[in-house]
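Ticket #4471: complex job returned nothing on first submit. Input attached below:
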Amino acid sequence: MSTENVYSIGKPDGEIDNDILRPVESFPTKLWWIAFALATTAMLVMWGIIGYSFKVGLGILGINNPVAWGFYIINFVFWVGIGHAGTLISAILYLFRQRWRTSINRAAEAMTIFAVMTAALFPLIHLGRPWMVFFIFPYPNERGPIWTNFKSPLLWDVFAIGTYFSVSLVFWYMGLVPDIATMRDRLTNMEPKTKLGKFLLGIKKITVRIMAIGWVGSAKTWLHYEKMVMVLAALSTPLVLSVHSIVSMDFATSVIPGWHATIFPPYFVAGAIYSGFAMVMTIMIISREVFQLKSYITMKHLENMALVILLTGMMVSFAYTIEFVVAAYSGNGVEQYVFKNRMGILDHASPYAWSFWIMFTCNVVSPHFMWFKKLRTNITVLFIISIVVNIGMWFERYVIVVTSLHRDYLPSSWDLYIPTWADYGVLIGAFGWFFFWYLLFVRALPSIAIAEVKADEAGDKLAKGFGH
Amino acid sequence: MVSFSEIKKGLFRYEEAVGGWVATIKSAADLLKAAEKVKEAGVKKFDCFSPFPIHGLEKAMGLSRSWVPFITLIFGLSGGVIGFLLMTWIETSDWPVLHGGKPLWAWPAFIPITFELTILFGAFSTVGVTLYLGRLGKISRKPVVNSITSDGFAVWIGDSIGKDEIAKMLDGLYDEIIETPDPERS
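Support reply: We reran it on our side without changes. The output follows.
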């Protein structure tokens, strides 16, 4: 094995602390305040619309009969999908000993948590009577006992999303503990000048002390801790695959043509990783610029992510093709009609063919630029493609939800889906809600796993020293 | 595969670094050598501190394998079994409702929730047992040297042996040997 590692940072441990903790230990920049103000405004608009919908009902949305699922469910599937890349990086790439995950895994895991928080909003606000939400939790009650329907994929979703969120959260927090201890011990050297500074530092010291749960870096703790990381990674791997599989079963177990397909679980998982990596790419390109972390998140990291996007993009394209082949081969006229309608090759109008072609261009065509080394090492190209892919993946869910529903079995019940101002407001506000949390995170906690970076660096040195 | 008796024989407990001496070490490689030397000298109460996990340190210190995964297995399996049995009881006797022409005991439909509960119980028990075995949660605890969480390494020796003896034991590997600071110091 070569002793030179392309991912080596080659800085002493103390300097790594300084680099990674700089955004946490300094005052926010103007750029951060502008971004935070924008995100918060969008978020407040969303909460306003949601509050209004609680008062007057879901009639303010564009949903109708037969298109009873609209932007809310599209957003739900989109945001759950975004989260998947974080777990892939923190769990699956960990088990495969992929060294390049170290620099990006903390931020990607944070992205997972905030994306799942965004996703979980949508089924909740899509309930006609959201204050009855406790009905979805199975617990002994005075109502009968009335239990939930355990045979329903919608309830499987409750368990899948609930488990996914809580396990990701503890995994992320436990990963943070050694780094929070680093923050705690650095705070002891800080000398505030003003009274207010002293007060704020006092609060910060107490918070960080509690969050570090008494971590002192004992080898006996590290031993159990390392085992725990391994076990949680091994548990999260099937978990993340199950989550989007179960989300896909919300569609696949129904009898709607265009939804009732056995390929849905792997198709959704591949799509989730595809869009999630695109989102990680977008965020990483911005944060390495803004926080001067270019020696930690290098071109090589971005290139690897580009290759994952290329691979999963082709898997998604393959799934699209299979769907069409299966429809063509099925001998089922209704199924064939749905797919012809998607592409717009019927002898009458297909009102949503444009959404299919947007999806096709963004998801099937755009990843192939990544074959060329020149393009996948160009930041501008990567940034544009990462956003294009996510537009495409949003439209994929739009195609699945809307085109399948708007043409019912009975032509007399056909209808169009026209989103309203409330739909668009919540769509944009959801991004605000996500970035509100993400921006707070990059200011409050180390966005690169410090202890893991140091362990990798030391691994390089030890390998050199012992000559193996 | 390690046998259960082997694990039981080598069980170790977390010990608070109270009393005795702390030797600060320069690098991870030196810490590995120092741990080996302390173990060979037959010191009973000792611990190593580092800012990151060091591969092979548990061997150098003579620590046995962690039994965190066994707890995961037990709790994970029981989570799945409890979930499956609960759903069976609810769907067949407490609240038997026919859904979509499926039989009351439609066990394949219980698999997703059984799976999720296996993961949920397994993951939370893993974290819980790690917190317990690593004695985390005592927020008043302080590191033996402040640089431990940044770039420092140290060995704590709790046996009642003299400073000179430790200096001889760790010949050339240590930076300085200090009295263990009070972990509750402010």
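Chain A touches chain B through 72 residues (CB under 8 Å). Closing as resolved unless it happens again.
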